[in-house]
Amino acid sequence: MAEIGTVYLVGAGPGDPGLITVKGLDALRRSDVVVYDRLAPAALLDNARDDAELISAAKASGTVALTQTEINELLVERALLGQNVCRLKGGDPFVFGRGGEEAVVLADAGVPFVVVPGITSAIGAASYAGIPVTHRGVASSVTVVTGSEFEKSSKSGANWYAIANTNGTIVILMGASRMGEIASELVTRGRSPNEPAAAVHRGTSPTQQTVVGTLSDIDSKVKLAGLGAPIAMIVGDVVNLRDTVRWFDNRPLFGKRVLVTRARSQASRLTSALMELGADVVECPAIKSVAVKHTGALDVSLRELGSHEWVAFASPNGVNQVFKRLNALGMDARAFHGCSIAAVGPATVNALEQQGIVADLTPDTYTAEGLVDKFRSAGLTPKSALVFKSDIGRETLPTGLRQLGAEVAEVAAYRTVLAEDSAYVAIRAFEEGIDVVTFTSSSTVKNLRRLLGGNVTAINKCVVACMGPVTASTAQSFGVRVNIIPEEQSILGLVSAIENHFRDS
Ligand code: SAH
Fold first, then answer.
1. What kind and span of H or E run contains 30?
2. 99 C-beta closer than 6 A to ligand 1
3. How far is the CA of 174 from the centre of ligand 1 (A)?
4. Could you say which of 162, 248, 428, 464 would form a disulfide bridge with 128 (CB–CB 3.0 to 4.6 Å)?
5. Do residues 306 and 338 make contact, with C-beta atoms less than 8 angstroms apart?
């Protein structure tokens, strides 16, 4: 008989995927089966093993949700088959998550289980709305209560008189559809109608929305804003602290959905810089870099590196593909012995550093033109140079170096091709709504357009940000209206230009 597996009852946190615990993430990464709830952040599922079975408890077969009994049976059944199961639940598993019921069933069935607490929305959603649930001198208790049993007078039902009179903070979960009744019950039981109240919808996510009012008007304000479940309702004077403590939903790009079209291998810096400003980033790589089809010319150039005074790299991709090929040929960084190295921008410098090479020359403005200018202003007149570029790379750098008197060899180090598998992501992203489209090179423009079936109408409904003038003119040549071109052509330049655009508008 197979050994019995373990069930991990894991709290996934309220929405921000970063709020899962280290221990919870570890269980998720190792499990054979993941049974997840609707409120568990979907992005976390990317951490499951490639061969893990993912089962949605909300919609297991078509549209019908599994009943709690079916979930319980599923957990026991899989563990008895010897599988390790991650039961991924929104917030904390034991705070209105029915995790307690699952634990009881597992205990009865003799199935080993581990409980990994999570950040409950009762605290997390409040924190991300800038509301500390307790605060010295303002609230010395917090009561978390369900709004779902409001009309029922069951034995375990809450004592609303006691709750209203704690003189502390009250957090109501599962009360979105009964906020008016709950508020007036609290008033009837002695809380002031002027007591501050807040409703936090989808707390900790990029679509978080918060409405602030008092017990007497919070329900109508929430209805006016059109907010529904999931809502954490917070009652008490701590709500007033939001004016000062607000930190998450007032960041410059909060609420903006930004499309990142650059190759996945290069996207992370742009993505994280945008996310730090609060943007909801959708990665939709329009291009990918692949090895050249015929390596002959590249191989010859790599074997003869020593014959060039200067070697110039136009992108991190170039660096990475050159070193891949170099390694395949049984060589390493020592092949550049004796050459001076030029790099077009900081990302390229970085990629070189990863290979143990410190660039000798980088421009002040990160373009091919800038690099040629830098040679000129530094008084450098290279006799011979080798330029590594993409198969569709521009001629600017080779031509510029030739004008300085160098004998220049150009070699394609990689190919830039359409990322066909992104078509679905692109179409769905625009259907769901995009505020800003970012283009970091001409090929991202051409290929996003191809992914959208040759039509730029959807792009033109958004704010369009291009990393530099060359990219922008490619965009314009396809009928794309460009709103943002940064002065500094770099990722950070692009991000701060987007930030300024929304600050000024
Ligand atoms: N175990 C969960 C609660 C599950 S009950 C936890 O600890 O958070 C479901 C209720 O939780 C929802 O009706 C809503 O009131 C609240 N909730 C869950 N996620 C939320 C979020 N991101 N923002 C606001 N409320 C949330």
1. helix 22-30
2. no
3. 7
4. 248
5. yes
